[in-house]
Design a protein that fits this description.
Elements lengths: L7 H4 L3 H10 L5 H8 L3 H9 L9 H20 L4 H20 L4 H16 L1 H12 L3
């Protein structure tokens, strides 16, 4: 039996996929991409028009574009200047500390809580999903 573990890095594709999505997004201007990534305006224009194939770009270029894609994905939930993620990090930290204390005498549950804490705090997509009920307007 083969088990597939869903990895947050795969949910929106690899860095090349993200770079392509960013370049295809008409709501993001060349100037915005240049300002955030530092990639030249000519290069961005060439990638967007297909004069230069993004699949043949240096990894550092693709990675910068992918990072910008991630920033744009997370910003609405994280809030201006990341204020929501800071607040939610404290909530998560308290949650895990309380549960580690509650289960300190049960090594199996304690280990499970520590593993869950590691997974949740290292996975920005999971953290974003968990945050939404705390900061949704409605």
């Amino acid at each position: 039996m083969k088990i597939k573990i869903d990895n947050w890095r795969d949910r929106h594709g690899n860095d090349l996929d993200k770079a392509k999505k960013l370049l295809a997004d008409k709501s993001v201007t060349n100037k915005q991409i240049v300002d955030v990534t530092g990639i030249s305006k000519l290069s961005i224009s060439n990638y967007r028009t297909g004069k230069t194939d993004i699949e043949k770009a240096k990894w550092s270029i693709v990675n910068k574009l992918a990072q910008m894609y991630d920033i744009l994905e997370f910003t609405p939930t994280y809030g201006p200047n990341g204020e929501n993620i800071i607040k939610f990090s404290k909530v998560l930290s308290e949650f895990f500390e309380e549960n580690k204390e509650a289960y300190k005498d049960d090594p199996r549950f304690l280990e499970m809580i520590v593993i869950l804490e590691s997974i949740v705090t290292s996975d920005p997509y999971t953290t974003t999903e968990l945050m939404q009920p705390f900061f949704e307007k409605g």
